[in-house]
Amino acid sequence: MEAVGLDVLTWMVDFLSGLFVDPFFAVARRPDKLVQILIQGVSAGVMYSLIALGFVLIFKASGVFNFAQGIMVVFAGLSVVVLIEAGVPAILAIAGAVVVMIVMAFAIERLVLRPLVNQDGIILFMATIGLAFFLEGFGQIIFGADPKPVPVDALMIPDGKIKVLGGLLGKPVRIYELDLTAAGFGALMVAAIIVFLNRTKIGRALRAVADDNQAALSVGIPLRTIWVLVWSLAGIVAIFAGVMWGAQSQAGFSLAVLALKALPVLILGGFTSVPGAIIGGTIIGVGEKLGEFYWRGVMGDGVEQWLGYVIALIVLLVRPQGLFGEKIIERI
Amino acid sequence: MQGHVQTAEVPAAARPLLSVNNIEVIYDHVILVLKGVSLHVPKGGIVALLGANGAGKTTTLKAISNLLRTERGDITKGSIEFAGEPIDHMNTNELVRRGIIQVMEGRHCFEHLTIEENLLTGAYTRRGGAEVRRDLEMVYAYFPRLKERRTSLAGYTSGGEQQMCAIGRALMSRPRMMLLDEPSMGLAPQLVEEIFEIVHRLNQDEGVSILLAEQNTNVALRYATYGYILENGRVVMDGDAAALRNNEDVKEFYLGVSASGRRSYRDVKHYKRRKRWLA
Question: N or C: less crowded end of chain B, CB within 10 Å?
Fold first, then answer.
């Protein structure tokens, strides 16, 4: 009996030190690895944020959790790729994808949102699940089911790597130019969206609709126009996300599943906050990569798969509106 | 109309700014809410629409501003005219452009926007930044309290301030006519008086015509020029505000005063009214 107790005890000690002590030794041994992982985490986080951003826009303006956001990313990415494959210049291909996404926004407003106006959020959510299935089938008819490589050269996305900090850390750290581009464009896009929401008349109207759509209607804000606008905007964000995700691996329908990775990001950052999507994405991205590398020894492979959800769960217990979500205003 | 108070019809020369002609409203294709309501608001007038809960006051206002459709309501009979033009089946956005705007019951401010942003959304249908700025100052002149709180989130302001914000927001659209739904709801008597005083000044100084749905019959009839009483989706009585105030039935049913002195509204309830008015 005593021997078994001792076994359990040593195992516990090993496990806990594996979780909370060993990683620090590992960092001390190879500081360059830590920096490398942090950079990888941030760039993964930017990618998650790009998808989360589309969710936030639609959730803010119409209170709909858009399950179809992932497939919209695939749709947008494939539109660009197919147009370039057909010999259209890159700029025009992107413009073409913008048109595709705007047409899609009009169609969704007309066929899905309008008949369901004033229904519960859960009904609209179900409708977007249906929409996701429809778009997946429809997309495979148009684009074919096979994943396609993104023509990085035609889009003029740099895909080399830069080595930095070699002198300081002993071994150089690699940064992929693709990640840098994604981060740069992502930051630009977020800045543009924040300015649009806070400084323009239409942005203000959009936030008004998010708060109280009946009242917005009563002061003469046309809900349909706002909805088309916000779905178009989410579509345009999706083009960027689709191209960047596609450039990392391939543009194909399996990418739609990645949209689920945006869920913990949304819970962490808050469903209604644009900066929240970015910061949430970064935290989840970095957390996952750190966990994957330093906890692999004690937890086994695949830490990356679930750690984000655990982080989200903990946040949910402490702050249900997320780190940056709108305050839940209670009047007493 | 089968009113007890005999008053002359609205003079034909002064054509009413708004006329609602015998409208019937049905919700969800089955629930008949308004059973033929007619009313007129003259240019520059304050008209009160009185009645108990569920009488159809809000539905009447929403029929005019066409907020009905989002609640699955439909005008099935009758017509509505504004400045001589038929406006039923025009959407709300178009109506606001034409100068008719509703201030909804229960304030409905945009909680996560500041007071100033709330006011600015009222100008959504307008162009021209300079003019909008000027009107913002005008609203602040009418509601100095809003100016003090311009940067606070509307959700954190008091009920009175929210009501002011809602009225100010409507004012930003430069309306010719405002439909006020229950502005006194949930406010202290002193604040109610303050808000009605401002509404009165808006009517006098800015020439905004007002259709006012109220349960607070006493206050409404002091500020209005004309009144309609709704019961069960019908207009059961209408007349000049002064005449309504002195009418024995109105006194008894709505003001809680009768020939035999003050009495509880509870004791005179429906059976008696039904006998006299609806039989």
Answer: C
The DSSP H or E segment spanning B226 is: strand B226-231
* Separation between Cα atoms, residue A129 and residue B136, nearest integer Å: 44
Rounded distance, CA A112 to CA A114, Å? Answer: 6
Chain A nearest-CA residue for B62: A218
Q: In terms of CA atoms, which chain A residue is nearest residue B118?
A: A208
* Range A201-220 burial, b when 16+ CB lie within 10 A, else e: eebbbbbbbbbbbebbbbbb
Is A208 in CB contact (< 8 Å) with chain B? yes
Closest partner CB to A222 (pick from B72, B93, B101): B93
Between A187 and B149, the more confident residue is B149
From CA B96, how far away is CA B74, in angstroms rounded? 19
The mean pLDDT of chain A is 85
Mutation site, A219, A224, A272, A321, interface B, largest B CB count within 10 A: A219
| Chain B residue set in contact with A, beta carbons under 8 Å | 65, 67, 70-72, 91-93, 95-97, 101-104, 108-113, 117-118, 120-122, 124-125, 153, 155-156, 169-170, 173
Rounded Cα distance between A273 and A53, Å, is 9
pLDDT value of residue B3: 46
- Give me the CATH topology for the region A2-318: ABC transporter involved in vitamin B12 uptake, BtuC (1.10.3470)
N residues, chain A: 332
Cα separation, A43 vs A92, in Å, equals: 27
> First-to-last CA distance in chain B?
14
The model's pLDDT over A260-275, given as tens digits with 9 standing for 90+, comes to 788 888 888 877 788 8
Closest CA to A223 of A211, A241, A240, A237: A211
Domains of chain B as residue ranges with CATH: 18-108+171-242 (3.40.50.300), 247-279 (no CATH)
What's the token pair of residue B5? Answer: 């108070």
Q: Which of B181, B207, B184, B206 is nearest to B195 (CA)?
A: B184
DSSP state of B259: T
C-alpha separations of A290 from A303, B106, B255 in Å: 9, 50, 72
pLDDT tens per residue across span A133-161 = 999 999 999 888 888 888 877 777 777 77
Judge whether residue B266 has pLDDT over 80.
Answer: no
Q: What are phi and psi of B234, to 5 degrees?
A: -130, 150
Q: Which residue matches tokens 């960027």?
A: A240
In whole angstroms, give the CA distance from residue A125 to residue A159.
38
Q: Does position B26 have pLDDT exceeding 80, yes or no?
A: yes
How far apart CA A97 and CA A100 sit, in angstroms, is 5
> B181 pLDDT band (50/70/90 cuts)?
very high
Query: What contacts B133, CB < 8 A, 6 or more positions away?
Result: none
Query: Would you list the domain boundaries of chain A?
Result: 2-318
Instruction: DSSP letter for A332, please.
Output: -
What would the mean pLDDT of A214-241 be, rounded to a whole number?
91
CA distances from A50 to A85, A190, A279 (A): 24, 9, 11
